[in-house]
Amino acid sequence: MERVANLSGAPQPTENPYLIAQQQVDIVAEKLKLDAGIREILRKPKRELAVNFPVRMDDGSVRCYTGYRVQHNLSRGPAKGGIRYHPDVTIDEVRALSMWMTWKCAVVNIPYGGAKGGVICDPKKMTLPELERLTRRYTTEISIIIGPERDIPAPDVNTNARTMAWIMDTYSMHKGYSVPAVVTGKPIAIGGSEGRAEATGRGCMYTVLEALKHLKMEPTRTATAVQGFGNVGATTALLLHEQGSRIIGLSDSRGGIYNPKGLDPHKALRYKQETGALADFPDSDPISNAELLALPCDILVPAALENQITVRNADKVRAKIVAEGANGPTTPEADEILYQKGIFLIPDVLANAGGVTVSYFEWVQDLQNLFWDVDEINRRLERIMVRSFQEVLNNSQCVEVNMRTAAYCLAVRRVAEATTTRGLYP
Ligand code: GLU
Questions:
Q1: Distance from the alpha carbon of residue 97 to the mean position of ligand 1, in angstroms
Q2: N or C, which terminus of the chain has less Cβ within 10 Å?
Q3: Percent of the chain, pLDDT > 70?
Q4: Helix crossing, 91-107 with 403-422: angle to 10°?
């Protein structure tokens, strides 16, 4: 399904994330009456690097992998964004994700542009030494464009603190001295930040609490369903549970579990760590990922991959609040359907911006060699998330647009201002 315009020029559904990201810019450019030149600049990434590189496998054979690093915009500061390992990575996906990073950093007003990286691979079928060799070689290939002042990677789907440690070490070996600020999301032992591991979920929780306050709902009287049980989904579930919300549905890539009386996310996490999946968790009924998205609940957190809520299932969503822990889980057509249904959407560029916000704290701490405690980190994170939520909400109420368009307007305006203020070179 990849149609964007038919002969009459009417927009058609697409699930190509890059086309979606461009469509989102077009909508906002119209609203902001943006200069045509700026609009052209913002519709495409500034720089794209594709790398094909060999990795020696444990059995002695050599396999070639393809990876990307895309920098969308550098007007407000160095590029920032994660690296994902997934068999379905495409250049268009990485392009879209790099654009969403630009808007995300601008929404929370941290001094970065957007970037993203990805390697086409199936990390679940690779051993740790193979993953280490892949990471070190990929780092070497993209080292011509990354660096603490240029482009700072971080974890994303299927990468974690250990992956960041390999990147930091490889980059530092090339330089001949340690460069902790080249990546964020590192282990604390080598310059990582307190609070970074749970920052995306924690930030998501803060935005959900603000949304509940706005809708005059009590956290303790809510039911939550979370799609995806990786770093973001699991942490969000744990923290919302801590706030008193009843977690009625959880899922991972293999399927979901449901109990209307409530699931204990701590036990579910332990269970998943022991068995490798959520399936057959005691006192729960099995459900599919599609069923999870349609559960009657107050808060729905899609925290897996792109294109989960689409024109095909958006009318089945029964939540009052959708908080996008994942990047790009909702297509533009589905956005419109959710809006018409009166569902309050906290868009990805706001809901999951806690991760890059604490990444920013980590980078600042690395650069000044002075480290903050976890209370300081969480206090600063809360302040930024609450302020950003209120700015987006005010924007959406003033100009009567949905929360995503409001967030984009705020972000695109900030990036456009930086671009015009700097002026055109040469
Ligand atoms: N991968 C995360 C995201 O999509 C974090 C990026 C970062 O910390 O640079 O926001």
A1: 10
A2: C
A3: 97
A4: 90
Q: Say how far apart CA 3 and CA 172 lie, in whole Å.
A: 45
Q: Which of 80, 100, 101, 184 to mutate to test the pocket of ligand 1 (most atoms within 8 A of CB)?
A: 101
State pTM to two decimals: 0.96
Q: Measured between alpha carbons, how far is residue 393 from residues 21, 149, 212, 298, 350 in Å? A: 21, 32, 13, 19, 11
Give the distance (Å) from ligand 1 centre to CA of residue 90: 18
pLDDT tier for residue 12 given thresholds of 50, 70 and 90: low
Mean pLDDT of the chain: 96
User: How far is Cα 255 from Cα 106, in angstroms, rounded to an integer?
Assistant: 35
Please report which confidence band the pLDDT of residue 205 belongs to, taking 50, 70 and 90 as the band edges: very high
Domains with residue ranges and CATH for the chain: 47-190 (3.40.50.10860), 199-351 (3.40.50.720)
Structure tokens at 289: 């990922």
Please enumerate, as own/partner, the contacts of 9-14 that have beta carbons within 8 Å and a separation of 24 or more: 13/310, 13/311, 13/331, 13/333, 14/331
Residue 110 in tokens:
């941290």
pLDDT reported for residue 18: 97
